[in-house]
Amino acid sequence: MINALFTSATGMRAQQFNVDTIANNLANVNTTGFKKARVEFQDLLYQTLRTPGVQSTQQTIVPVGIQLGHGVRTGATQRMFSLGNVVETKNVFDLKLDSPYSFFKVVDDKQNLIYTRDGSFKLDDQFRIVTTDGHVLDPSINIPEDAADVSIGPDGTVSVRSDGQEEPQQVGQIQIFRFPNPAGLQSLGANFYRQTAASGEATEDQFGTLTSGFLEISNVEVVEEMVRLITAQRAYEANSRAILASDDMLSTANQIRR
């Protein structure tokens, strides 16, 4: 009975973590380029009272054993890199990555390379293409000050046409990158990721394309998250009832008198 108290407590902690993750998904339902997370659970150690397969007599073996589990723990939070919904903005610097595994590379204020799927780019005071936080796209692309028209092709080619020019001139190309294991990236917040040993080295995505004038918003499905939220809440309640049942059984044992 004492084991049940601690085992159920691990279940309540695990479901609380699950609810926290679902809440973060729902909070970012309109965040540009956000990828939802899914909690994965693992069972804890087992107390083996009888090992399956041991001999019970010289001619027979035990077909099944006796093991007592000690609860659950959070094993991982899996980032789901599926494509999110698309909205049209008609802003030339709003870019949508066509592959769910492609990333833009930018340089932060500490000169660290970080990656993002948020394609809502802008121009800074030096006419460089930057993120909402002012991080410069890598490699850096400068738009001429006298540019009258800017266009970005599916391969990332940035072309401008100045006043008096009939033909556009290419000023740079936006490069797209991918990872062997994008789920291994470290989330930094503000729609940024950092490369880790688990994600592998970033390589240029030779076949990746983008679309100008569109943005990819979150891939969170509200109905799906609400169903997961209800399931997690019911599992939390079930574990709390197991604790109450164990407490009642302990109370009954304490009331036994000769």
Care to give the gist of this entry?
The protein is of the alpha+beta class and 258 residues long.
Q: Per the principal axes of the C-alpha atoms, what is the gross shape? A: elongated
Note the run of SSEs as H and E. Answer: HEEEEEEEEEEEEEEEEEEEEH
Q: How much helical structure, as a percent, in the residues?
A: 10-25%
Number of helices: 2
Q: How many distinct folded domains?
A: 2
The pLDDT mean sits at 93
Q: Provide the structure class.
A: alpha+beta
Q: Count all strands and give the number.
A: 20
Using only C-alpha atoms, the radius of gyration works out to 27 Å
Largest sheet, if any?
A: 7 strands, antiparallel
Strand content: 25-35%
User: Termini separation (Å)?
Assistant: 22 Å
Low-confidence stretches: none
Task: Indicate the topology.
Layout: H1 2-27, E1 37-43, E2 46-50, E3 66-69, E4 72-79, E5 86-88, E6 95-97, E7 102-107, E8 113-116, E9 122-123, E10 129-130, E11 136-137, E12 147-152, E13 157-162, E14 169-173, E15 176-178, E16 186-189, E17 192-194, E18 203-204, E19 210-212, E20 214-216, H2 222-254
Helix pairs in contact: 1-2
